[in-house]
Design goal:
By secondary structure, this protein is an alpha/beta fold. Helix content is about 20%, strand content about 30%.
């Protein structure tokens, strides 16, 4: 099972404003920067409740017909979702195990707390981080505290005419 992150962040490391707003990100994702190619390789998307609520407020459902798993220990209203959506709760390792048992081979993990939890659990192998050329000064950090250093191996850095800078890393085996 491969577990990946594909995320946009401000240059100062925030994935959302303190209120969850994403207005600093380029409209529609900006110029093409590999998201469509990435998402085509994904079997299931794992997001937290807050990210799910943010996605529901978007004009279009961004995940097409991909399987989306919303992590929450409280009931979630899935009726407004635009695709194949289900709810699960439990530790990240259990979620990965359950999705693997159901045939998933590549998971896309999104949302601040969800990314941080899966990273702390040692379950993420690939990070694709696209920095947007803006400083927002505060908000939801991409990374939180960690119990230990997590070594990364740089794969590639790409830059785009709009100023986006994307770096891809593989999480080094311990």
């Amino acid at each position: 099972m491969t577990v990946s992150v594909f995320v946009g962040t401000s240059v100062d490391g925030f994935i959302a404003r303190p209120n969850g707003d994403l207005d600093f990100l380029p409209p529609g994702g900006g110029e093409p920067h590999g998201y469509n190619e990435f998402i085509a390789t994904v079997d299931a998307i794992v997001i937290g409740r807050k990210t799910f609520e943010t996605v529901l407020a978007m004009e279009d459902w961004p995940y097409g017909d991909k399987r989306v798993v919303v992590l929450s220990s409280r009931p979630v209203d899935l009726s407004r979702a635009g695709g194949v959506v289900e709810q699960k709760a439990g530790p990240p390792a259990d979620i990965v195990s359950q999705l693997g048992a159901s045939g998933a081979h590549h998971l896309y993990v999104d949302g601040g707390m969800t990314i941080q939890g899966f990273l702390r659990a040692g379950l993420i192998q690939r990070l694709i981080i696209t920095r947007v050329p803006v400083l927002i000064g505060g908000g939801v950090p991409l990374f939180g505290t960690l119990p230990r250093d997590i070594r990364l191996r740089h794969i590639v850095t790409r830059h785009y005419s709009s100023g986006l800078v994307q770096s891809e890393y593989q999480v080094a085996a311990e």
